[in-house]
């Protein structure tokens, strides 16, 4: 399914200049070759110095973003996408960015993503290349769906969920706010995963997982409270 973003130029900044941020920048560059044009102004990162970074540049921290918003040359809406792997940090940064006003979250769906029938996706969510979302799926705000992840029918992913590369989420799965699903994990049909829980890489989840725990292995077993 092609992205629904129009061909008009849309100015966007990426919050976070780490590895995932550079990946998102690469997605945006690739999307320019197709039916959208996102004009990447640069990265916003409180922990890195201004300067070149991958295909773009680091503008600075939130103060630099504030200046960009107030720049009279801007003259139009400015958008942002978060690219922070830590969901708790992501949520805190979103709250700070939204407090600045005059900047809007944008949903990015790479042109190789397949999105089928009756799918609703919240603002600020990023769907990476090769990801698949089937039918009657609900995905919240500021969710990361990484490369070649699959989300099957009737699933619900709450805000700030992170789905790592190669994850398989079977039908009727419910994933709570801020949960992290590690690379290559499989979530059995009908399972619920609690908010802010962590599922280890390669895990096979066949039973419900409560809030705020870490579960690993095949089958997945809880090893600690977070």
TrEMBL record:
Coiled coil: none annotated. SUPFAM superfamilies: Trimeric LpxA-like enzymes. One of its GO terms (molecular function) is transferase activity. Keywords: Repeat, Transferase. CDD domains: LbH_AT_putative. It holds the Pfam family PglD_N. The active site is at 153 (proton acceptor). Residues 12-97 form the PglD N-terminal domain. NCBIfam families: NeuD_NnaD. This is PglD N-terminal domain-containing protein.
